[in-house]
Amino acid sequence: MTATSTTAIGTLAARLRTVLGTDRVISDRQELRTYECDGLAQYRVVPALVVFPHTAAECAAVVKACAAAGVPFVARGSGTGLSGGALPHADGVLIVTAQMRRILELAPADERAVVEPGVINLQVTRAATPAGYYYAPDPSSQQICSIGGNVAENSGGAHCLKYGFTTNHVTGVEIVTPDGDLVRLGGRAPDAPGYDLLGAFVGSEGTLGIATEVTVRLVRLPETVRTLLAAFDTTDAAGAATSAIIGAGVVPAAIEMMDALAIEAAEAAVHCDYPAGAGAVLIVELDGPAADVEAQFVAVERLCRDNGAFEIRIAADDAERALFWKGRKSAFAAVGRISPDYIVQDGVIPRTALPDVLRRIGEIAAEHGVRIANVFHAGDGNLHPLVLFDDAADGQAARAEAASGAILDLCIEYGGSITGEHGVGVDKAKHMPRMFTADDLDTMQLVRCAFDPRGLSNPGKVFPTPRLCGEVPGRHKGAHPLQEAGVAEVF
Amino acid sequence: MTATSTTAIGTLAARLRTVLGTDRVISDRQELRTYECDGLAQYRVVPALVVFPHTAAECAAVVKACAAAGVPFVARGSGTGLSGGALPHADGVLIVTAQMRRILELAPADERAVVEPGVINLQVTRAATPAGYYYAPDPSSQQICSIGGNVAENSGGAHCLKYGFTTNHVTGVEIVTPDGDLVRLGGRAPDAPGYDLLGAFVGSEGTLGIATEVTVRLVRLPETVRTLLAAFDTTDAAGAATSAIIGAGVVPAAIEMMDALAIEAAEAAVHCDYPAGAGAVLIVELDGPAADVEAQFVAVERLCRDNGAFEIRIAADDAERALFWKGRKSAFAAVGRISPDYIVQDGVIPRTALPDVLRRIGEIAAEHGVRIANVFHAGDGNLHPLVLFDDAADGQAARAEAASGAILDLCIEYGGSITGEHGVGVDKAKHMPRMFTADDLDTMQLVRCAFDPRGLSNPGKVFPTPRLCGEVPGRHKGAHPLQEAGVAEVF
C-alpha cells in the first residue's frame, strides 16, 4: 500500500467509525489477517479495513462512503466460499454481514421467510421446522454458511437435483447498489413484472451490490425420507443406474456418486464401512408422500440391481441414514488423509454423458500423472473431481493444475459448464473465455458497467480481465428515437 | 408519418428486400393492417413495414439494418399476447418470427429440446410425447402461441402452480441484441456461470432483443392424472379449501377457481353443466406417480368437504376431465355472452389473502357500479378478474377502467404484483410506478440502456415514460480503480 493510500484509508476509517462506532471497524494489521481468505485458502489478501454493519442502513452508509472515496469493497458472509468470491482487496474494505443475523419474518402459510444476509442457512430450516417447513438448498457447509453468501454464489447442494438452486428459492432481495442506494428486486410473489434483475443479482458474486435482506421460499417438510446405498463394480455401471432412474421418471431428492478413490479416502477418515470392493457407490434418497416414496423406492432398488449393483443397503432409521451420508459429506476433507494436497474442481455435464466423461477424466489423470477422486451430484451431472498432488514434489502442483483445467475443457466439450455450484470468484475468472465468446462476456460487462461503472464492487472477480467500462464495445450511443424530430433525421 | 420518414422507410425496405427477398417484406398499407394489434385489440397501430426472417442470421441482418437506420423494431410471434407487447410502432419494423418454426433437436434423455422461436407451444409437447416427455408451461393459448412469445412474456398457465413459469423451463437462448449481434445466454446445463442474463432476458418483453433459438426443458409425462370439480357456496369457502390443500403439503398440478358470475358465463357459452347454485367451483388436478396421486387425491377430496364443498365430481375418464376444463378454458370468451364488453385483468396476491381480496373486489364492483367475474389460478394467487361493461352506455368504460386499476392497487396493497402472466406490455406500463419506486425503475433502466441505449427494441413497452438514457440518474462515472495510480488520487 502506498503512503497516500494509507492516508486515504485512514480518512475513510475515521468516517466509518462515526457510522458504525469504533469497535465495528478493524484496521489493526494482525486482526485484519483473520479475514485474508475465504474457503479457498490458496488465495490470500489482507484487506485495508474490515467493517461489521448491523443494519441495511449501516451497510448502505458504508458503501456510500466507499463510493465517495473511490475505495473498492468486498462483501463477506461466513467466508466458506470455495471459489475465492470473498477474497479481500488489498486497498479495499471488507464488509462482513455476519452480524446481520435476524430472522425478520416467518410466514409458513405463504411459504416465505424474510431474513438478514448473515443468517446461517440451517437456522432458517431450524426456525421453520416447528411449523412443518424447511429451507431447501443445502450446501455441504449449511451449518455455517450464510444466506447472503448463498445468494451471492447461487449455492447448490445434494438436494438441488429435486429442489433447484438458491435462485429457485429466493423471491426477493433488498440490496445496496455499488452507489450505496437501497433498492428492492422481486418481492413475495413468485414473479415480478419488468426485468428479472433478482435473477441476475442471485449468483452475481458480489459484483452488482450487497444483499441486505432476503425473502426465501419455505418448502413443506416431506412426509417420508428413504435412503439407499448401492455398490457397483464400476462408475460406468453406477452412471447407467443414475440414467435409468431419471429415465424412469423418478426424481430423487439426491443421487450422489463416489468412486473407488473417494471411497478409500472416506474409509480412512470416518470408517463409514461402505461395501468392500466397490468401484463406485450411489447414495439415492427419495422424499415426499409415503405412498409415492414407497412405490418409487422399489423401482429405484430394482433399477440399481438391473444395472449391476452387487450390494444394496437400505437405511433402517435416521442413524443409518446419517451413516450413509457421513462418508459422502466428509469426502472432501477425507481426501487429506490420502494426499498431502488436492484441488476441488467443480463442473457440470449432461447426465447422459457421465460414463464417457468419467472415462476421459481417468485418461486425464493418467496423462498428467496425478490421481483424481470423484465425489459428485450424479443426478444433475455436477462433478466434483478431487485432483490429488504433493506440493513438495517437483512439478506435481503444475500437473495437478493442468489436469484440473483439462477437466473444465472436458465439461465444456460435452455442453456443460465450468462451475456447478461453487461459483467463478477469483479462481475461475481465467476460465470464463473457454466457455463464453468475447461477445458473450461483453454482454455481461454491459450489466456490470451499468451497475458499477468504476468496478468498486468486488473487483477482480468473475470476469477475466478488468477493463475500463468505456472500453466495452458499446451499443450505439444516441438519442431515443421517440425524442427525435423524425426517423429520417437519424440517417 | 412525415414525408422524410417515408423516404427513410423506403430506403430501409429496399435494403431488407435484398436480405429477405421481396415476398418477405410487406409495405402495402392494406396488408400491414393485418398486424395492427396482438391479442389486446384495444390498442392498434399499423407498422411501417412487416418482415419475415427464416433464420437467426436473417433476423440479425434485419435488426442490424434497423439499427443502422435508427428505425425502431418490434418482434411478434403468433400475436396472442394480452398486454400489447407486440403492438407495432408506427414508424418501425414489425419482425414476425412465426416462420422460424423448426424443432432443431429433441434430446429427451437429457430433458432438452432446441427450437426456433416461431414453434407453437403445443408442438413441442406433440414432438416429445412419443418419447414420454412434454413441455410443461401451458398458457390457455397453447394451441397457437409461440415459444418466442412465451419467452418474451414469461408466460404462465394453469399448471404453473406445480411446474413454474416459462423462465423455469428455458435453459438457454440465442438472441439478436438491439445492435444486431447474435449472442448466447445460458445453454443446456441447469445453470451457467456469470450473470443470469438468460433470466433477465426471459420476460423482458422484447426490450432487450429477439430470441432466435430457445433451449427448453422437457418434463416426463406423469403416470397418472386425476381431476375433481368441487362446488362451494362462497368464494370464501373455496379459498379456504385452496389454502387447506396447499397447507397439507399437497402441490396439485392445478387449482382453478371460478365464481358465480364466471360460472354463469361459462354455462351460457358452452353448457358445461357445473353444479347448480354454486357460489364458486374449484377444479383441482393432481398428476404424478399413481400411488402418490391416489393417496393425495383422497386427502384433497376430504379437505374440500371439510371446507364446505356441497358437491364433488371426480372425472372418470379423459372425456369427463375435458368437460371440467371446457368451462374453465372458455370462461374468458364466454363472458362475451353476458356482457357486450369486458376487461381481462391479471394480478397476483399471496394465496392466504384470497378471501380478503375477493371480498374487496366485490366492494370495488359495487363502488364503481360494474359487475366483476373471477376466473383464476387459485393455487398461486394469480387472479384474472373480468370487469364487465357496456361501451355504448355513458361512462361505463371509464368506470370499468377505474375498477380494473383499483384491483391492481389492491394486489399491491396485499404484497402481490400487477401482472401474474400476461406481462406489462403497453397496457400496464402506466401502472409500474404503483409497484416500483423511482429508484427501482431507474435500476431496470440501467439494464435497458446498457443493451439498447437508443431504445429501438420495442420502444414504449414495459416502462412508464420513455427517457433519454443519459437522463437515468447515473452511477458514478470514472476510471476503474485498478487502473488508477493509487486510491488516494480518487479523493
TrEMBL record, chains A, B:
PROSITE patterns xrefs: FAD_PCMH (PS51387)
Cofactor or coenzyme needed: FAD
One Pfam match: FAD_binding_4
Keyword Oxidoreductase part of the UniProt annotation: yes
Ranges where the FAD-binding PCMH-type domain occurs: 43-221
Keywords recorded for this protein, A-Z: FAD, Flavoprotein, Oxidoreductase
InterPro entries reported in the protein's UniProt record: FAD-bd_oxidored_4_C (IPR004113), FAD-bd_PCMH (IPR016166), FAD-bd_PCMH-like_sf (IPR036318), FAD-bd_PCMH_sub2 (IPR016169), FAD-linked_Oxase-like_C (IPR016164), FAD-linked_OxidoTrans_Type4 (IPR051914), Oxid_FAD_bind_N (IPR006094), Vanillyl_alc_oxidase_C-sub2 (IPR016171)
Descriptive protein name: FAD-binding protein
Source taxonomy: Bacteria, Bacillati, Actinomycetota, Actinomycetes, Micromonosporales
